[in-house]
Amino acid sequence: xxxxxxxxxxxxxxxxxxxxxxxxxxxxxxxxxxxxxxxxxxxxxxxxxxxxxxxxxxxxxxxxxxxxxxxxxxxxxxxxxxxxxxxxxxxxxxxxxxxxxxxxxxxxxxxxxxxxxxxxxxxxxxxxx
Length: 129
Prior knowledge:
By secondary structure, the protein is α+β, with helices and mostly antiparallel strands. It has one domain. It is built from four helices and five strands; from the N terminus they run ββαββαααβ. The chain has a three-stranded antiparallel sheet with strand order 2-1-5, covered by helices on one side. It has a two-stranded antiparallel ribbon with strand order 3-4. α2 runs antiparallel to α4. The chain starts with a strand and ends with a strand. About 12% of the residues have low confidence.
């Protein structure tokens, strides 16, 4: 199973224009959660990128927490996540899926790709579905 992640931009036409996308395995979501410094699912007080309109509420975690985030803001969050992964790779290696669908390297590559897309298209938004 996997998500489709990418960037899209509202050009004012009837439909939002997708700029780029790729498939990302669910199997490394724990790595994304740790790297993005997002707590377990549930009710949280701090504001995260999520579907909610205010600070309190049930928040998505892991990669899904970036859904609908503006690229101009998400780039810093993704960059910090990559730095965490590079600084201490051991916990991410331990999260490697037993079925070998996904790895530390693939999670890094996915975040690096998403960061590149955000830097190329700062007016776009991230989508995860």
